[in-house]
Each structure stands twice: as C-alpha cells, then as structure tokens.
Specification:
By secondary structure, this protein is mainly alpha-helical. It has one domain (2-221): Lysozyme (Orthogonal Bundle), CATH 1.10.530.10. The chain is built from eight helices and no strands. It has helices at residues 2-31, 38-69, 73-90, 94-105, 129-133, 144-162, 165-172, 182-217. The longest helix is centred in the C-terminal third of the chain and has 36 residues, at 182-217. It is elongated, with a radius of gyration of 23 Å. Mean pLDDT is 82; it is low at 3-49.
Length: 223
C-alpha cells in the first residue's frame, strides 16, 4: 500500500513540474542540441512556452465569452485569438477589442444594424472602404478576421488622433455628443469583466496546483 502511495505522489509531483517548468526543460534541451540546430531549437522552445501560456489565456476568455454571450466556445476562442493578434499588431489592448465586440455585436459575426454597420465590430463599409479594400472590398466585412482587424485599426486611429480613450470610443460609436459617455462606460465595464475572468482562472489554477502539491507532499513522509 505504501508503495502505491509513493508512486502516486511521485506522479503528482511530475505533473506539477511539467505544468510549471516544462519550458525550462525545453530550453535546457535546446542548449545541448547539435550546434547546427541550436538556434532553431531554442526559438522553438520559447515559442512553445509562449503558446502554452497564450492558450490558457485564450481558453479562459473563450469560456467566459461562450457562457455570457451563448456562442460556441470554439468560435469564441477563434475570436479571442484574432483579437489578440490584431491588438499586438497595432499596439492596442486585445481586451479592449473584445469588449468593443461584446458591446457592438454580442459576438455575432453577421450582425447588421439599421444604419448599415456590419459584423463583429459593426463597421460602416461606406466610411471605411479604403481599409476594407485591403481585404477584398466591402464583401469581406462579414469575415471575422477582416472585421476585427479593420475595426481595431479604426479604433487605434481614433485613439492616436484624440489621445484620449474615452473620446476615441465615443468617436467609434458615433456618439461624441453624449456628455455622459454611455458607450465608453459600457465598453470599459465589459473589459473589467474580461479581466476578472482571467483573474479567477489564475486563482483556480493556483488552487489546483496547491492542492496537488499538498497531496503529493503528505504521503512522501510515510515509511
């Protein structure tokens, strides 16, 4: 019986090490790899570690979006990944992009307003034909990646022009005359919910890891 407990304890510890320090092992292996492939191996290990962290982040956000807006989690994770790629490309907070999508379309890629705003970020093709032209024209407005990239670019331009996030968001919504900044408040509230979802996910993972560590540490003292 003691042997089985010891084996279970060692297995639990190995799971902890792989989850928390896997990237260290990959990096160490890269350093002792043959010289002609050392650089590529090291880069691959770093990319793998980053991808693992991003995957956890994307999954946590996708779970939140899927539950709150009743969309497929796989689709939600695609939107989350695209928003992060677009944000990193132009220097805009991906959570802000996701918050705008939530307020504008509730993550409905074929949403269309009575005034002609379309897609996830409710772009007006007649006002942004030049940007859509890079992706094939107005017909591309319902493509999720195109819509997110163009919408993010529009918001970034407004932010650069005004130097003020609230004004940029109000411009995006065509609501500069709203002195109460209703649209801005809605977007920032949604962004806070996304941040809270990430914090809760991090706490949950920490609690699970601590529980495994406690379970693994106790039996090891048994003789």
């Amino acid at each position: 019986m003691s042997l089985l407990v010891l084996i279970a304890s060692v297995a639990a510890l190995l799971l902890i090490l792989v989850e928390q320090y896997g990237s260290v092992f990959h990096t160490a292996y890269a350093r002792i790899a043959p010289s002609d492939g050392a650089a590529a191996s090291s880069a691959g290990a770093d990319a793998g570690a980053t991808s693992a962290a991003e995957e956890r982040r994307y999954r946590a956000l996708a779970e939140f979006v899927a539950k709150r807006y009743r969309v497929s989690q796989d689709v939600a994770q695609d939107f989350v990944a695209i928003a992060h790629a677009a944000g990193h490309r132009i220097g805009l907070d991906p959570l802000l992009i996701l918050a705008v999508m939530a307020v504008e379309s509730r993550f409905n890629p074929i949403a269309e307003s009575v005034v002609g705003a379309k897609g996830l970020m409710q772009i007006m093709p007649k006002y942004h034909a030049d940007k859509l032209g890079e992706f094939g024209g107005a017909k591309a407005v319902f493509d999720p990646e195109t819509n997110i990239r163009v919408g993010s670019q529009i918001l970034k331009e407004y932010l650069s022009r005004t130097g003020n996030l609230s004004m940029a968001l109000q411009m995006y919504a065509g609501a500069l005359s709203d002195d109460e900044d209703v649209y801005t408040n809605r977007v920032l509230s949604e962004k806070q919910r996304l941040q809270q979802a990430l914090r809760q996910n991090t706490r949950s993972r920490s609690m699970r890891t601590a529980a495994i560590e406690r379970a693994a540490a106790g039996p090891l003292l048994v003789r």
